[in-house]
Amino acid sequence: MTAIHPLHQMMENRRNGKKEGIPSYCSANKYVLEAALERAKALNRPTLIEATANQVNQFGGYTGMRPKDFKDLVTGMAKEMDVDTDLLILAGDHLGPLTWSDEPEKEAMKKAEDLVREFVEAGFTKIHLDTSMKLGDDPKTEMLATEVIARRGVKLYKACIDSYEKLKKTDPDAMRPVFIIGSEVPIPGGAQEAEEEVSVTRPEDFRDTVDTYKRIFAEEGAKEAWKDIIAVVVQPGVEFGDAQVFYYDRENAKDLCESLKDYPEIVFEGHSTDYQSRKCLKEMVEDGIAILKVGPALTFGLRESLFALSRVEEELISEEKRARFEDVLIDAMLEEPKNWKKHYHGSEGEIAFARKYSYSDRCRYYIGDEKVQGAIDKLIENLSGIEIPMNIIHQYLPKQYDKIVNGELEKTPVAMIKDGVVQYMEDYEYAAY
Hints:
There is one protein chain. By secondary structure, the protein is α/β, with parallel strands linked by helices. Helix content is 47%, strand content 11%. It has helices at 6-15, 30-43, 67-80, 105-121, 146-170, 203-219, 254-259, 278-286, 296-316, 325-335, 348-357, 370-384, 390-396, 398-405, 413-432; strands at residues 22-26, 47-52, 88-95, 126-129, 178-181, 229-234, 239-240, 245-246, 267-270, 289-294. The strands form two sheets. It has an eight-stranded parallel barrel, surrounded by nine helices.
């Protein structure tokens, strides 16, 4: 008998009065993945790891991985680290025609169907169906109707279930996937332009999304499909961009969250929750925004710890032996600017500052670069070969200092690097568990 999906269990716990949620870690970075797996092992809790359609798809995405490759990467790491793979929930984010939105509907949706089929066949069990974007032959001057979004979403849902039924023939214990829908979907990676405010999804728009999907499921002969839908993506008023963070205001989101009471079978999924405070994240989970997507903040934390250790290296290692991680990273970004150029604006100095410190972290696209990874390896080697004084750790990595003193963290460069990621994960654990 197939076990209950951990997210269905979360929903049941919430219906029984427990204000439970789950963080959704969206990254293909090895340090982030290792940190997530270590937390899964330490807490013995289901851990949700997502791949976005532009990271991983049937053509390789920007990581060069197809869904099965990503699954093999994560499960292989888990086995090496002695982490129970039953704790892993693999998810596909923004699955739909986003990557091919310039193409006509027929071609874009065909590629989207192939995309979702590959994710399901690879064993991903949380699927975000995102058909919220206009396609090449959609009217340019009109908003995309909820009905159009829903009909495309239902088409992808049916492709997923068809692939799941095929998967069950070779793996009878394969877990049935759960689905996330929604028409007010923030773009991956945070806002590209500065904003003055973020509008909260109107309750009537949320209800329209739910009612439209239910109607079209019924029209398509899939009325029971609603049992597979566990969440709707909404905008609860949280967002981040280059140099700004909009924090959750539960009063502003009150009407939206109240409307969720009419649909006890679902919760909200919050995107762009990066950089929210622990208090904000906790309030979001309490208010029904139970699935908390986070990605750029994790590699932002990784970059912070790498920069901090570079400062330590400058103090302790002779100039000719230094890894120069920061310089190598920026050189890589300047050599290939396509992954940050449209995100950063202003004077030359402001853009140079953003390349290093922007909340809309674009460094993550370069950390896997061969030269950048080589600099990280050299930084680790340099600092592993010496005794790092505690007082300089206190200067540049004060949170890690406290953990080392309390016996919670090893005094090694690798442990401190990963803890730059973990310090953000801990905020989500506080909120969700």
